[in-house]
Known about the structure:
The protein is mostly beta strands. Helix content is about 5%, strand content about 45%.
Amino acid sequence: xxxxxxxxxxxxxxxxxxxxxxxxxxxxxxxxxxxxxxxxxxxxxxxxxxxxxxxxxxxxxxxxxxxxxxxxxxxxxxxxxxxxxxxxxxxxxxxxxxxxxxxxxxxxxxxxxxxx
Length: 116
């Protein structure tokens, strides 16, 4: 089954991004529509696909990872965090393929790629 999935690795702690809130949006013309909101499990993954079935379609997407809230629990960051919400915008051009968008993150940097 084709779908959109994600996982988060906390490279600061060397652990999965447990408990990070993730929102997913789809762009329809110029309008951004929220299609899912999940909390990552102890393995830094969602229990279900972010998007699948009839909602998995070609177009522009956005995933928002709320990492600022996550890192506040790990490090003493009483001031404004350097990274708060990590926003990744990307496109799905083939609904016959699985799209996986991992996030590698620390309190000061992040990286992503199209995984398998």
